[in-house]
Design brief:
Blueprint lengths: L12 H10 L12 H7 L4 E5 L4 E3 L8 E6 L1 E8 L2 E9 L3 E2 L1 H6 L6 E4 L3 E6 L1 H10 L1 H20 L9
Helix pairs in contact: 4-5
Length: 163
């Protein structure tokens, strides 16, 4: 799934914080967390690098990982009997995987890198640990991610793009 991290890629919270601050997409991640909160959250996250066209996850996968997008863009699509149907492009400063994270249901769509991407993953287990140790930060993550999901579900065109 994940490409080995190239040595030239730098992963730190500042890149993600800036991506969130500069995102103006309809489904941007509203940053309720301070830079200090993000630094506290950092040990619970794992960096993920994707090359262009690499799959992040497929429709039907059972996985509750939430991904924060630092750089690049991801194509959300599903494949029906007539081929691939693009549902949305998700850009840096947002999240992907929110529906599975909250619902405990299989992924509703396939997500593939539209360009080289830098992501941060938060597994359900690490979120549980965060909830026990840093409940204020866990609540902020849940509320911000839930708000993204609500925005996507309210938009008829992108409703099914909630993954």
């Amino acid at each position: 799934m994940n490409a080995p991290l190239p040595s030239h890629l730098k992963f730190d919270m500042q890149g993600l914080i800036l991506a969130i601050a500069h995102c103006h997409a309809e489904d941007q991640l509203a940053n309720a967390l301070t830079p200090a909160h993000w630094e506290t959250l950092a040990p619970y996250l794992q960096p993920v690098a994707l090359t262009q066209s690499q799959m992040l996850f497929s429709r039907g996968d059972v996985d509750r990982t939430l991904y924060f997008i630092e750089a690049g863009n991801l194509s959300v699509h599903y494949e029906d009997s007539k081929g691939r149907v693009r549902l949305a492009i998700v850009v840096a400063g947002s999240v992907i995987g929110e529906a599975g994270f909250f619902s405990h249901q299989p992924r509703t769509a396939t997500v593939q890198a539209g360009s080289a991407c830098k992501l941060w993953s938060l597994t359900a287990l690490r979120f549980s640990e965060l909830s026990n140790r840093q409940p204020e930060i866990a609540l902020g993550v849940a509320m911000a991610s839930g708000a993204v999901m609500a925005k996507r579900l309210a938009n008829r065109r992108r409703r099914i793009a909630s993954t």
